[in-house]
Design goal:
mainly alpha; three-stranded antiparallel beta sheet; 153 residues; two-stranded antiparallel ribbon
Length: 153
Amino acid sequence: GAPSKALGLPGLRLGWLVTRDENLRRAVIDLKLYTTICSSAPSELLTALALRHHDHLLERNRAIVRTNLPLVAAMLARHEDRLSWVPPTAGPIGFPRMHRQTDTQVLCEELAASESVLLLPGNVYAHPEHVRIGFGRVGIEEALARLERFLSR
């Protein structure tokens, strides 16, 4: 939902479902009611507060993405023999393809263990040759340097 991505509040887990499919809507509601009693009261309170200040939060996060996107793009360009991507037109997430990998799971595990950098392997999206990279945080330069060091091995 809005708090996790646009407002930069990933710990707040509230979301919405829009569908014309009544059966799907009912199934999702039934599953939600089966798996949770209610939404987290702190998440609801903090989300309401965040939504009251959404203009400030959105501008802050846009500035972070505008700063970080060229850094990520430059790093990927330096490794174009191994990586390619279509830069996102909105949002702080990219999905580069690893040319020499058919499954990035092990690569992501090795990167986390050796450099403390987390990329999500693409197999969770049924595209195992890709990785999910987020760049919506301040201080991404160190993580990119560690990723680049790992890729240069």
